Here is the input.
Amino acid sequence: MRTFGLSEFIFLLAAVRWTLLLSLVAFCGGIGFGFLIALARVGRFFILRVLAQAYIQVFQGTPVLIQLFIAYYGFAVLFDLRIEAWTAVSLAFTAYSAAFLGEIWRGAIQAIPRQQWESAECISLGYFAQLRYVILPQAFRIAIPPTVGFLVQLVKATSVAAIIGFIELTRAGQLMTNVTFQPMIIYPIVAALYFVICWPLSQFSRLLERRFDATRGITQGL
Amino acid sequence: MFGHRARRCPHFQPRMRYVFQFGIVADHTDELIHGALSTLWLTTCGAVGGLLLATLCVFLRTAGPKPVRWAIISYVEVIRNTPFLVQLFVLYFSLPALGVRLYAEQAAILGLAISFGGYATEILRSGIEAVPRGQIEAARALGLRPFKIFRRIIVYQAFKIVYPALASQVVILLLGSSIVSAISATELTAITNSLQSQTFRAFEFYFVAAAIYLGMAFATKAVLASLYWLMFVRGREA
Amino acid sequence: MKRLVLIWALAAVVAAGTIMTANAQSALDRILKDKKIRITAEVTSPPFGILDKDGKPDGSEIATAQQLAKDLGVELELVQVTSPQRIPALLAGRADVAISSLSITLDRAKTVMFANPHGALSIVVTAPAGTKISSAADLSGKSIGITRATLEEATVPKVAPKDAKLVFFDDIGATIQALLSGQVDCASFSAFAAKSVADRNPDKKLENKFTVTTAFYAAAVKPGDFDLLRFLNTWVWLRTRDGTLAQIYQKYTGVELIALPTF
Here is the structure.
């Protein structure tokens, strides 16, 4: 019987990079689409506002595990496509991130006082120019701490990909448990590895909060 | 968008080959309802247990000796910086080695309560810090004992301030309860998994499960909102 | 601002274009052209699929997959799956062939196309020596660990008494853990898996209580991949004749392969 040793620990460490890679891909994708969602949400067109709101409600109102199951099981079968595992999982987490980041940035944009918009209009800037030169730079400052906070939530969320057998840190822990039969050592180590990734990010987010002196975001995902 | 593909492969026709059969889902309504009720039960137990735990922790964090304070800070930081799934695995798979054997439902409720307790402690703490200091000083001047001050003045007002954040966290807990399916606890996701693996109708079942969760999330928000009204608004001055 | 939106839109379109692949050519042609075959690998299902001491996939089904890739003259890509993911990975196009001890059942035959079987297994209920179980009726009042989307999930609930507590896991590894830690009174696996777990944990004194059913398992392909199916049938027939498949089976299970039927 194998016992947990250096080679098993290295197996866990190697899996950390998949967790980080998935989180990063979903985060960057989420920033892009989340930005569009936020713009749609605060924009002038009623239909876009409604669609964006519906999108956010759906992704914030359903479990990330179910979203992942739908992406992994159902989506490709619908349209007879061939989607690789990575693509399906990345898309699912990107869509998840886009909803949360969109909501965060909506809040940031709406926190800018109406006067800013009006002043920008007074100096004859168009809607997009108002956004770009006046509103967004200010909203950016407010949005950064909760955005970094969300990255922690995202890294934790990627652990559910283990349930569908996707190789990342939690799944690696399950696999090592299966060969060494020592879950009392392995799962606390997996938890410690996540802690090492997430805690610095959490502290960084708090530091940014204090510096930017913005309203605290105190709820967090599981 | 498919232009270049169509030119290279003339037979390429994206089409829906899948035939939806939601009728099969309707046949299993009873099981799905049982799952939804289990989810609500787990969430309620986890939220109530977690809230009690959090109230105790936040009291100890402000009024307790230094090692206890450090222990609670560590507990909160560990919960907030590790995934819920891994916490469940530790409770369900790692604890037996120390002689503590929990059944799936017990581990699920314990996990949910401990997790909710971690976040709620932090939320309550920020609420307590938001209570105006003048109130506490006035209470001390009136000669009230620390615990009474805590209970009557601090907790009530802190709770009112952070109620929205706590309510959001309860909804997050509701959705997070789907993860307990991984340690075989019975709730909506676990039952959906079983049903779809037996009938091979994955998309229909998960779609309906998502809709049920969405419904439960909305219902929970509505119930919590009315609770707020009952507790803090009705019959009181603003 | 407009340029940024445009760049993101373009990126989205390009991404969409790269993930969509035409299903026009036959699966076999595509595999031979791309020189790559993707086969499911369940690595928590001893002895069919395990991780060896270097963390590399190994086991009888994985060795079979390697043999298939070698005979096709293409590169093998193993798609790691859990039990419930074996068929969905196939249907979603993440794998070309599923070789992960998929027992042939009627329900599965409705969603995938099975090749001729290349192995046989039996499903048993296993528990520590102290637990008295000699037939399905003795399961009354006990908790049984079962893995989802397996043959045991399809058969054990039908024979278990009403007051037996069925506990479902998403992964064979989790079921094994639950049995070893005593969270379930007994569990149901293939006889080979039960033997593997018993051998690696002699202190638990696990023994097989009774056999639930026996079955043949086979490779499976997505409905519509007829030429790939035809090739698989031919391959299984050839490799059964020259004993290669029997050799792989014996090496990992320690049991001689019985005569395989064809259909």
